[in-house]
Amino acid sequence: MTTLSTEGLLVLCNIPANADPAGIAQLLVEEQLAACINLLPPVRSVYRWQAQVVQDEETPLLIKTTHQAYPALEKRLQALHPYELPEIIAVPICKGLPTYLAWMVDSVKAFPE
Q1: Which domain holds residue 98?
Q2: How many other C-beta atoms lie within 10 A of the C-beta of residue 49?
Q3: What CATH code is carried by the domain that includes residue 29?
Q4: Which of 23, 26, 63, 111 registers the highest number of CB atoms within 10 A of its CB?
């Protein structure tokens, strides 16, 4: 088991509430692109899209993954996401409980660097 906390990423992605966010989360974990995904309660998002201000109900996903798995996760999220331009933002995990971080890294499929 590895304990390098710098390998971890927290990926944020909002999924439209009517687009089965739980199903998307299930697939990403089953495919070992993520160790764990938290589905937060739906939120109302307000944003500018194609010169219009839009409001949508979305479910925020907090996705725990690794730097190595990120490119495959991003590609898969884009394929599953109904938006033309989905919000996919990755934040490095700088610190954490070493045993949790090791579990997270071990739970995600290894990808060649």
Answers
A1: 5-107
A2: 11
A3: 3.30.70.120
A4: 63
Please check whether residue 48 lies inside any domain of the structure. yes
Which of the four pLDDT bands, split at 50, 70 and 90, describes residue 3? very low
Question: Which of the four pLDDT bands, split at 50, 70 and 90, describes residue 113?
Answer: low
Q: What's the CA gap between 104 and 28, in Å, rounded?
A: 14
At residue 28, does pLDDT exceed 50? Answer: yes
**Is the Cβ–Cβ distance between 11 and 70 less than 8 Å?**
yes
Q: Is 9 exposed, middle or buried (0-12, 13-18, 19+ CB in 10 A)?
A: buried
Q: How far from 96 is each of 10, 81, 108, CA to CA, in Å?
A: 12, 29, 17
Task: Extract the tokens encoding 13.
Answer: 């992605």
